[in-house]
Amino acid sequence: MAKVKISITINEKTLQDIDSIIDNIYIRNRSQAIEHLAKNALGENKTAVILLGGPEEHLKVSKHEYSPTVKIKNNFVIGLALKKLRENNFKTIFIVARHNLLTRLFELLKDGTEYGVKISYIEEKSSNGSADSLRLLKARISTNFLVVYGDIVFSKINIEELWNDHIKQNAVATIMLTTSSKPSEKGTVRVEGNMVLTFEQKPKKSDIYLVFSPIFVTEPQIFEYSGYSLEFDVFPELAGKGLLNGHLSSEKEIHIHSKKDAESLR
After folding, report:
1. Residue 20 above 90 pLDDT?
2. What is the pLDDT of residues 206-239, one digit of tens each?
3. 111 to 15, 115, 118: CA distances (angstroms)
4. Is-contact 50 78, C-beta < 8 A?
5. Are 98 and 121 in contact (CB under 8 A)?
6. How far apart are CA 191 and CA 23, in angstroms?
7. What would the DSSP string read from start to end of 148-214?
8. Which CATH architecture has domain 38-263?
9. SS3 track for 42-64
């Protein structure tokens, strides 16, 4: 598409905010920064990844059923996710999972037309963690994108605010944060303002009750960071470099680990 040269007048503080997202890697100059922000603000087709990697037995709730394919009222867990994503203008969806689960999801969702999205299915042969799973998309995504784990219901979470918070800040990733009375089962964080200072996955003991909710927005730069796991490797490294931000949610996601979890939402 042809580029058009324009002249605009803008206040100095806004210009400083625009310049702050120039990283000389993905956004190299002021024009690219303004275009990047405008596309996001206008709600152009956005990209989301639903992560369902890892051994399939970890996602099973019965002999033949998986947590994302459990029914809640008139929809499936994965269907509720797609509905929420489409409502927030995420129309390009990648689903990462292993063969049997991927086949079952394709039977239910096809190409996503029924949900107003376009789904690409990415088969994971094997992985050692969530970062390995996400890295399968390295050659497929070149702009900032949302990641959500596929075994949760997040209908009440304001993902638009998370998205907007990320594009205003100069971070590689912005993770959703919530509170938990059992932080040793989660990824705990220490924060200063929006910046995550430390990220520790499932600490043996913790008096920090601010934890990672498995939804985040990230830049493609995340693919360049090594390590098997987002929670054990990538997020702690980003936090140590001042490149991880947090966004506090007033609502919590609901994890579906069993049919009982799903039944509680009916």
Report:
1. no
2. 888 999 999 999 999 999 999 999 999 999 999 9
3. 41, 9, 6
4. yes
5. no
6. 23
7. EETTEE-TTS-HHHHHHHHHHS--SEEEEEEE-S-GGGSEEEEEETTEEEEEEES-SS----EEEEE
8. Alpha-Beta Complex (3.90)
9. CCCCEEEEEEECCCHHHHECCCC
Q: Are 51 and 122 in contact (CB under 8 A)?
A: no
pTM for the whole structure: 0.85
Distance between CA 221 and CA 34 in Å, rounded? 19
DSSP state of 111: T
Distances (CA, A) of 175 to 35, 88, 96, 103, 144: 24, 17, 19, 30, 13
Average pLDDT of the chain, as a whole number: 91
Give the separation between CA 165 and CA 126, rounded to whole angstroms.
Answer: 33
Positive or negative torsion for Cα 74, 75, 76, 80 = negative
Which residue is it, tokens 């002249």? 7
